[in-house]
Amino acid sequence: MQSRARLQAAAAPPETPRANCGDLLHVARDLFWMPTTRAPAEPHDILPPPVTHFAESEVAVLRSGCGNAHGMVCAVKGGHNAASHNHNDIGHVILLCNGRTLWCDLGPETYRADSWGPKRYSYWTLRGSAHNAPLINGHEQVHGPNHAADGWHFSDSAKGIQIQMELAAIYPEVAGVASARRRLWMRSGAEPVLTLTDDIESQGSGVQAAWIFYSPERPMLVGNVRVEWEEVGASMQVEAPGAVLKVEEVRIADTTLRSFWGDGVWRIRLDAAADEQRLSARIEVRTKAP
Known about the structure:
By secondary structure, this protein is mainly β. It has one domain (51-287): Beta-galactosidase, Chain A, domain 5 (Distorted Sandwich), CATH 2.70.98. Helix content is 9%, strand content 41%. It is built from three helices and 19 strands. It has helices at 4-11, 21-32, 255-261; strands spanning 51-54, 59-63, 72-77, 80-81, 93-97, 100-103, 135-136, 144-148, 150-157, 160-166, 177-187, 193-202, 207-215, 220-221, 226-229, 234-239, 244-251, 264-274, 278-287. The strands form four sheets. It has an eight-stranded antiparallel beta sheet with strand order 9-10-11-12-19-16-15-14, with no helix packed on it. Strands 1-2-3-5-6 form a five-stranded antiparallel beta sheet, with no helix packed on it.
């Protein structure tokens, strides 16, 4: 029979050594040590899936070709405008082509004391007008829990990947928006295509709308309805009543934004208007290997 002392010793928890810098160095050595006589292993590509879809948060990332340096990567979000660290960015689309960013999200400026509170949306990069959901009848989307996307729908088929959402609720009542249906469709292949359509219905007569895209890559304006990124191997064509595209450079002064985008970015603005209650706009981006 074991003695009482031996039983007590067996029941007692083992003493946990106090961690110190030396302990961590030993652990790190054991984790990462490799014999010098062994040749390093060949790197293996970790390929992301063609689609990453978070249904509950209404976020999706679409990729036209995994493991290929060329093609498109697109991110889109729905959700609501009362999230933690919220930006008014419902419906926003980020687009990369051939590894270069064509439509970006600028991100926040340097945080200040009033970056949270009633002055938060005085910072221009947090506002709806800094994102590419349309401005309707002169009004951008606004913040608050009731300003949210509705009817988020995701589908993946042989014809491509499609996302749909209703954006009417993201606008203030004074905008008079009866419906604002956004659809996104990505088709893969040797020359991928992204099609973005907005079908807008006003509560009154006539609709005016504007779309604003920010690009760190310099676009070339070709006529009123087309821009090209020659070095990237991509183009953007628009169809809308009375459509007019404008391109201008936006210089950046904020140090945080400059760390991401350098001295400036390019603003692409599309304006359209219809005398009727409905307005439809189609924006198509095509790319090929540069």
